[in-house]
């Protein structure tokens, strides 16, 4: 095997008129403008052509958006969580109708599911095809055209990959551009067809892209992004849900996955992740000198860093996540609330699980001496946060009772949060929701190097067992986290290493759109999501404090929910579109 070095360094989907979207934020992306233009006015003007491509970038992060799912009036919907709330990471912010709540309760069906994945992806795939068709006539030099074409083909693969993880096999358009007057085919391609198409598009695009993008091009697709997307798609394809254990049957057997298991799919996933690692241009953001695990928190505040491989660019001075996730005293609202199960998944600072009798876990002081990523990911009672419109920090009072001259307030459990927690992951500690004084230049990760290391470890462990390289990949993550010792126990079995990797993904990649898909592709969602979720109530009376777990919601999961249903509005358009099993 090639030696790897794990660096630890400091409407209508297809038809309709041409929609032009400009989204120039800090370089190739900024203020979004939308107008109805013709192909002639867009593609005979170089600035319009470049902006048309920027518009395709503008939706790359929709699937991972923290406020993706909404409830309330159609004209003014209110966010109540993202994909985190549809998993065992978090609870929706309001018990009102949304796709997230339907997944929580097991009531998801074709009539209520959001159509954003289907519509957004196909709209942008169609835009890519329009660009590729018209790019030759644009008044742009050939070198730039070559780059733009490669970026567009990566973006097309990106949107197909989103469709694939939602639905399984979907219809592949190729380069076709349909209008509302055309008979639009809707028959689904097989899962294998879609995987092969995405891989081929990434391979072609990678040939004409730099390994990384920098300067004004930072945020654009790169060769590294192509390699990383391949690694993710191949990891999913090798996983139990799709690799010979498909939930499909009859007509859906080859649409929902591969009919037969093939261990070699794990080898392909391992090699794909190794290809990203071997570029040598990505590394973890490490700083354990400032504070244990500080590099983990600092990473998400750094607009430019060596860990992000593909990212959603945001305007400088944004407070996107703070607006959703911070507590009411900082005027955040409508983001999902973390669950006790996620909190309990974080080990102690010595790397041992809190269930290990030798870990020194104290249930009467449950947040002490924990993995530093816990505090960087979860706001619990007395977590210090930046004060609004002022300097300094103050503790978040989530307790019930009285403490330090304070009583039960707007941030308290059962008042501001239904679980006793708020999300801290990716928040800038110097930023505050709705505060012009405290903002951030952060952009949002869509693929980062830590995921690639964990992808490699998982695939290699499944194909070869817990080799030294598997240990090195996981331990690089744990070392950056500030665990001491960070090493895993020697002599782990393949099953033990699998458990370690799965938990490491759960805590390292929390709130980054992984947990929902991971438990499905591992085919364990019937265990992780058929539970009664828990929250934490902290009762204080002066110096006296008691920690009491309580039930939040009975979750329900059924077999059909391993894949999403196609929206009923789309299935009704054509008998060719076969619905997923169980819906």
UniProtKB/TrEMBL annotation:
Q: Does the keyword Transcription regulation apply?
A: no
State the family named in the UniProt similarity comment for this chain. Belongs to the SusD family.
Q: PROSITE patterns recorded for this chain?
A: PROKAR_LIPOPROTEIN
Where does this protein have coiled-coil stretches?
none
The answer to whether the entry has keyword Membrane is yes
A Pfam family that this protein carries is SusD_RagB
SusD-like N-terminal domain residues are: 113-235
Which UniProt key words apply to this protein?
Cell outer membrane, Membrane, Signal
Q: What is this protein called?
A: Starch-binding associating with outer membrane
The highest taxon in the source lineage is: Bacteria
The segment(s) forming the RagB/SusD domain are 317-583
Annotated compartments: Cell outer membrane
What InterPro entries does this protein's entry cite?
Answer: SusD-like_N, SusD_RagB_dom, TPR-like_helical_dom_sf
Q: Tell me which GO cellular component terms the UniProt record holds.
A: cell outer membrane
